[in-house]
Predict the structure.
Amino acid sequence: MAVQFQILGSSSSGNCALLTTENCKILIDAGFSGRQLCNLLESCGESRDNIDAIFLTHEHSDHSRGIGGLCRNGPFKVFANHGTAGAVQAKLNRRVGWQLFETGGSFRYRDLEVTAFSVPHDACDPVGFVFRQVGENGAQSQKTVAWCTDLGHLSHLVKERLRQADILVLEANYETRLLDEDHRRPWSVKQRIKSRHGHLSNDATLEYLQNAEETSWKKVFLAHLSKDCNEVSLLENRLKTVLPYIENTEAFQVSVVDPTNGLMPACMV
Ligand SMILES: [Zn+2]
Ligand SMILES: [Zn+2]
């Protein structure tokens, strides 16, 4: 059974993806309003009622904004670690069906093995996810999706987790020159974005793609672009200069997710 994956949107303003396996349909992050999420789901032929659970990376609103709205008609199962659940629940006046997990561990949800790994970012306990489809008898398939946005640098642990993914979603948040030239953000915010607990620059992400070894990637999405401090065409052009140096590059495709309209076609592995 194939795994189907579709990004509904990804930028500094909102992030969400839909993952469908034989036995479940889940959202990864819910960083749009409940109404927007319902509309996005409708545009890909889905509905809120068919979603079994939501998996949250961290509490920032561009990842958790829709939780309250989606839980309006009854609590949803929302998987998060203790820190993220506490921070999101504190801003809500309705109960969420929290399903708590430990950062660093793996657990089963229906036919998925979920690994939540720690990422360096300025939130309570931010994580990235690896979702691996598990067949009957617990046999693992090689169908794996990694979702990793919002991190200041690529630690050894993170690189190891991402290497094994068939579908990889990785942040490319800002172009350093555009962030430096930006007049809207005060110096302190720019420093936070650039810090080791902020966001990944185009330089950092492209360098990682260029130097990663023994990857399983078939499809790579560069995501969580800043609308002000990055540009799709600029990143695509920079990617073209790097691709010839990437080992095994014919094995996978790279797409840049437009921060103004990130609804991507569904892909299967
Ligand atoms: Zn974010
Ligand atoms: Zn964040």
